Amino acid sequence: MLDSWPVRGDHRKMPPSVHILILAAGASSRMRGADKLVTEVSGQPLLRQLAETALATGAPVTVTLPPLAEARRRALAGLPLQIVEVPDAALGMSRSLVRGVETLGQSAGPRDGVMILPADMPGFTAPALSHLIARFRADPTLILRGGTSDGQPGHPAIFPRDLWPALCQLTGDTGGRSVLNTNQGRVRVIPLPGQMALIDLDTPEDWAAWRAGSA
């Protein structure tokens, strides 16, 4: 049971950590045969670019992958991160969340947080993610959501440790939305530069529009 996860060592005086969980087990079903996560951004696969950005914060990084995702594994080759395979990834995004959070829960501290970072969002920067991490460490009871510069909520989201069991009860393809909705009083939206909290690339048209806007 999740409420009996072991707690390693004496964490009472340790500052909370944030574990970055990159959800990369999706099927890219709207890309009409292409894999968006190995499509190149600035000369390297999108998944590697995002993983390197996450690692640049200094936080531990875990990436969920579907079975037989050799191109995605090659994209991550040599990076100091943990890979969690999701054999039931076809059942929806929740399976990545459950598998990833269950793995992290085996060693995380009682005041830690998990940052849920979608893998198809190319706009994030290490300073922006580090800012969210610093804000969470200042109050690890809150749920933090990245937002646009004008306050629209988006991604990523950091969930405190006491909500990890709720994340592990999720089903389907809704991500952590239901946990956010149930705990609205604890949610704080933290503005990030520009539109990075909303830019995701799901279709060839999304990619074309984003490249045109970035040129």
List the main descriptive attributes of the protein structure presented here.
globular, 215 residues, alpha/beta, two-stranded antiparallel sheet, 7-stranded mixed β-sheet, Spore Coat Polysaccharide Biosynthesis Protein SpsA, Chain A, 7 helices
Question: What's this entry about, in short?
Answer:
The chain has 215 residues and is of the alpha/beta class. The chain contains 7 helices and 9 strands; from the N terminus they run βββαβαβαβαββααβα. It has helices at residues 46-55, 70-75, 93-104, 126-138, 164-167, 177-182, 204-214, and strands spanning 18-23, 40-41, 44-45, 61-65, 82-85, 113-118, 143-147, 153-160, 187-191.
Provide structural commentary.
There is one protein chain. The chain is an alpha/beta fold and 215 residues long. It has a single domain (16-214), classed as Alpha-Beta Complex (Spore Coat Polysaccharide Biosynthesis Protein SpsA, Chain A), CATH 3.90.550. Helices cover 29% and strands 20% of the residues. It has helices at 46-55, 70-75, 93-104, 126-138, 164-167, 177-182, 204-214; strands at residues 18-23, 40-41, 44-45, 61-65, 82-85, 113-118, 143-147, 153-160, 187-191. The protein has a seven-stranded mixed sheet with strand order 5-4-1-6-8-7-9, sandwiched between helices. It has a two-stranded antiparallel ribbon with strand order 2-3. It is globular and about 45 Å long. The mean pLDDT is 89.
